């Protein structure tokens, strides 16, 4: 293994690359299909389906742990990423671009979910406990930097290239081409800088039967947890309203004012929603974690579920008033994103707490897979509802849909209080 300081040579890149395809598949794809003229109903259904790799991630995690090394998995996924981004550049000019890009996004999603497993495992093998603690904030910072690039900078690049070349296809090709350039730089860099920890070896005694048995044991332990019904309801419904809203916010910002939208350009949406808004979301998450650490999760649940849901009223106002000032729109979106990040922290801390047990790593992976499913299913019908209702009535409906979030938060509060009293 290399010296401790050598982690600076590979760790920032490792986690920047982890965040990039995740942001592109999970968020940028929404703005991409909307800007290319896809209806909100079709866009919401298609981009929700792209969450499937993260829904299934818990099932093939043991395979990554058993076959080859984490370092090899990281390098393998980099090759898949590069192929996918090259494919996305070319697909802009296909007559069947929707089918082509959807297939590529789907492959990119599976590779990204696999990379998540391998990179996190590699991090624990390549660094000792002290350096793991030291670099935890740094790795999260570079992951979030990639999210800012994927959600914001790529929209700005696409918008400026579209204006320069007067062709939206070229605009998006240039944007995805920027990712090609990043991967062409990172692949040789990773091959040179990634250390080869002695402990990074495949399990010699693993076989398909053993891996499958481990998966079944992990699910059995999780499903036999006390209060499992409350746990599942919280995972599926805490973000029920937000899961529908998130598919429509960017199309709403991009859509014409005649259609009830705000008529912003790709550059403005990239700056407001993908850059400043994403930074506000990150800040809200950090402050949310500090808030919970000081007050405890039980006392934090109510203010955090309020923060998550009440700021949906921002979009009711924006749809009703359709303000012309980009500063007003940006300020309100930033407020909503900050409060969303703040409220989301309670969700993640709850998942950590209910994952405790003999197989806590597997339990947490199952929780995050179910979390993705809880985002995917509401997203399927969110776009259709928006087309039926229009933007204003849809945002009003979303505010009523937050009732589910408040109900499951109350159930989780009662569950945690019972656990506290029994200790």
Question: Would you mind describing this structure in some detail?
Answer:
- By secondary structure, this protein is an all-alpha fold.
- It folds into two domains: 1-194, MFS general substrate transporter like domains (Growth Hormone, Chain: A); 213-423, MFS general substrate transporter like domains (Growth Hormone, Chain: A), CATH 1.20.1250.
- 83% of the residues lie in helices and 0% in strands.
- It is globular.
- The termini are far apart.
Tag the structure with descriptive keywords.
single chain; 423 residues; mainly alpha; Growth Hormone, Chain: A; 2 domains; 18 helices; disordered N terminus
Task: Give a topology summary.
Blueprint: H1 7-35, H2 40-49, H3 52-66, H4 70-91, H5 97-126, H6 129-165, H7 168-193, H8 208-223, H9 228-237, H10 240-245, H11 249-254, H12 266-295, H13 297-310, H14 313-321, H15 326-354, H16 360-389, H17 391-401, H18 403-422
Helix pairs in contact: 1-2, 1-5, 1-6, 1-7, 2-16, 3-5, 3-8, 3-16, 4-5, 4-7, 6-7, 6-12, 9-16, 9-18, 12-13, 12-15, 13-15, 13-18, 14-17, 16-17
Return residue spans where pLDDT drops below 50 for at least 5 consecutive residues.
1-5
Radius of gyration in whole Å, from Cα? 22 Å
Q: What is the fold-level CATH name, i.e. the topology of the largest domain?
A: Growth Hormone, Chain: A
Give the CATH superfamily of the largest domain: MFS general substrate transporter like domains
Strand residue content: under 5%
| Strand-pairing-aware structural class | mainly alpha
Q: Quick one: how many beta strands?
A: 0
Helix content: over 70%
CATH architecture of the largest domain: Up-down Bundle
Secondary-structure element order, N to C? HHHHHHHHHHHHHHHHHH
